[in-house]
Hints:
With 462 residues, this protein is mainly alpha-helical. The chain is built from 15 helices and 4 strands. The chain is globular and about 70 Å long. The strands form 2 sheets. Strands 1-2 form a two-stranded antiparallel ribbon. Strands 3-4 form a two-stranded antiparallel ribbon. It has helices spanning 5-17, 50-84, 88-106, 117-120, 135-139, 184-189, 204-212, 254-282, 288-294, 297-327, 341-357, 373-379, 383-408, 413-416, 423-446, and strands at residues 22-24, 30-32, 359-361, 367-369. The longest helix has 35 residues, at 50-84.
Amino acid sequence: MNFNLKKVSVALLMACSLTACVDDGDDGQAGITGENGANGTNGVSTFVTRDDVLKTNANIAYAAYSDSLIAAQSLRTAITTFVALPNEINMKAAKKAWIDSREPYGQTEVYRFRVGPIDALKDDGTIGEEGDGPEGKINAWPLGEAIIDYVAVEVDGDSGPETPANALANNIIANTTDFPTIDAASIAGAFEHGEDERNVTTGYHAVEFLLWGQDLNTDLAGAGTRDSSGGQRPVTDYALDGTCTSGAGNTVTPTTCTRRGQYLTAVADLLIADLEPIVNAWEPVTGTHYKAFITGGDVSLAKILEGMGRLSFGELAGERINIALTTDSQEDEHSCFSDNTHRDIFLNAKGVQNTFNAQYTRIDGEVISGASIYDLLVVGGDHELANSLRGSLEATMSAAAVVDTKAKTGTPFDVLIQEGIEQPNVVAVIKALVKQTDEIEQAIDALGVSAGDIRQDTEEDI
């Protein structure tokens, strides 16, 4: 499972050579140098083409997924250290590595909904239909976490599968009869047990649950004020001596802690294994999807815009924010164990903005940038729409930044969604996402491409 980081660096160098250099002027418009070195009016080259935009988009996709893989490998290293020596310092380091790993991945969500590698890459390396890809194994939520490990008798939401008949007789870690060995194969084999989508055994949120545990508090009926902390899994849940627990004060056999560590290590391995083929598919030199995408013309351009719209409206505004808001349920927030949902919201919105502006900042600080959809609109004479959509994206980021800042200063998302607390801050993000979706639809029309329904991914009344 070792990924060739030298290959990543070489490929990114070649990818960057395919994009133009961007210089943001005082007026905020991108000054893009065309192939002949001349600039057009207002700093936008009259030589920007749709193919330029596609190449930039593909190069940024490769960079963002490469960063996600690198961060997942760092997470695996931190987990290895923690499982070998389970103490508070190493547990804290593993949690930080998980949070760090979410930063690049959150910005890749915009590459969904386009029948690309994340959504449609099959095991044989070919692109199938939407839903064939590894996205669910990587980032599925909400979890019915009871399939993995012990849970509280009562929680704020549902910790089990959608259908009780699809529950295991016991959780995987405790069930030594059906799961005598815990490894990548046994965990992957139990994914969506009984074809139940809440029986999630792999991915980022399985790691999150195993590091933080459930986020429990006294608010089990939608009343009262929630605390501002995430899950409180004790480090003794991984102890390798006689102090092994399954929850504070509940001493169990050391075998349970050993198996819990094996699960955590194996699920980190699976995360890397699931990310690697996505990176390979977007690789600029040999990636089959990269080559097909950059030569896809209006079809590829339509997919970019459709992905922006579907993430903005149905997935982010509807499924990830509005459901949690209207149900006031911690189990329905995206990163419910770590209380990191504020970053999910911010980073998903950032991914949409990155795509429109054609700019992404890598985890090492390098900026990948080039020809953008903004430029295409300006070159096509749609200056007003270009600036309006850019402004709407900035408004969304401002609203998301408020939620992000409040969480960082002690009022996390699961508190903000409580009635009578600070719901207007969350509602403001939803409204901003709806407005930018309206203008993404206008951009689709202005650019003359045919995209699918960008409001299809939620049944929520937004």
